[in-house]
Amino acid sequence: MKRLALPIVTKHINQWDPEYLLELGAPDDEYEYEIKQIVKAVLESKDEIEVAEAIQDTFRRAFDREYDYEECHTIAAKIWKELYE
């Protein structure tokens, strides 16, 4: 499952691009550290709500700002659906 989770999480986080770093020309692996943290959370979570909380917390710690929960939940739902449904 971990091998499946990494490309799925990478795809959705990079499409989201919460700090607009990729849009500004940063390399595709700009969010690599955060993505690895989220993959770990996805594999340990029981539902998309826990994934959303992990996304929000991971980016809050990484960039020292608040992220809208609904936005994080939207990304989590996409990840969860692709992995588990």
Q: CATH architecture, please?
A: Orthogonal Bundle
Q: What is the radius of gyration?
A: 12 Å
CATH class membership: Mainly Alpha
Main structural class: mainly alpha
Which quaternary structure do these chains form? single chain
Number of domains: 1
First and last CA, distance: 13 Å
Question: Which helices and strands, and how do they pair?
Answer:
Blueprint: H1 2-16, H2 32-44, H3 48-63, H4 69-84
Helix pairs in contact: 1-2, 1-4, 2-3, 3-4
Protein name: DUF1871 family protein
Pfam families: DUF1871
Structural features, described:
- The chain is built from four helices and no strands.
- With 85 residues, it is mainly alpha-helical.
- It has a single domain (2-13, 32-84), classed as Orthogonal Bundle (Endonuclease III, domain 1).
- The protein is globular and about 35 Å long.
- The two termini are 13 Å apart.
- It holds the Pfam family DUF1871.
- This is DUF1871 family protein.
List keywords for this structure.
85 residues; mainly alpha; Endonuclease III, domain 1; 71% helix; DUF1871 family protein; DUF1871; Apc36109-like_dom_sf
Concise description?
This protein is mostly helical.
